[in-house]
Design brief:
Shape: globular
Helix content: 40-55%
Strand order of the largest sheet: 3-2-1-4-5
Strand content: 5-15%
Structural class: alpha/beta
Largest sheet: 5 strands, parallel
Number of helices: 7
Order of helices and strands: EHHEHHEHHEHE
Distance between the termini: 22 Å
Number of strands: 5
Length: 149
């Protein structure tokens, strides 16, 4: 059974921000995900000193769609509300300028299998000087970032 993620519980310690990716969120919440055990173990050890997290609105849309399309609308709403209300997660709205930059980044890398959401996430990280992502996606490494776990 999926466990309840406690993203809304934050310690007072300030660290460098990190990016929160959809694969990490899915792994935390979906017990049948191949990365669930690793995400759960990492989160339980990491959340005591968790840095502020940033995530693009595209990731928010993907997480809601993922759980809703798997007939888990309550989980989609729960995670959406948790992300919106969490003082430790900053939701970056993807405006037209960021969208177009993401689209350009996507088009300039035909040799990669990056999603458009990946490209937007990379730009958010570049713009904010973020070097680490909570992600299982190897694309973050290919784009020159670090990923945890």
């Amino acid at each position: 059974m999926p466990r309840h993620c406690t993203i809304n519980t934050w310690p007072g310690t300030i660290h460098e921000p990190g990016l929160l990716d959809i694969g990490y969120l899915i792994a935390l919440e979906a017990a049948d995900d191949q990365n669930h055990v690793a995400a759960d173990r990492h989160w339980n050890g990491f959340r005591k000193s968790l840095p502020p997290l940033v995530t693009p609105s595209f990731v928010f849309a993907e997480i809601a769609t993922f759980f809703n399309s798997r007939k888990r609308p309550a989980k989609a709403v729960e995670l959406g509300q948790m992300l919106l209300r969490s003082p430790g997660v900053q939701l970056v709205q993807v405006d037209e300028a960021l969208f177009l930059r993401g689209w350009q980044y996507f088009q300039q890398r035909p040799d990669k299998t990056f999603s458009l959401t990946d490209c937007v996430s990379f730009l958010v990280m570049q713009d904010r000087g973020i070097v680490e992502a909570l992600a299982f996606d190897q694309h973050f490494l290919q784009a020159g970032f670090q990923k945890l776990p």
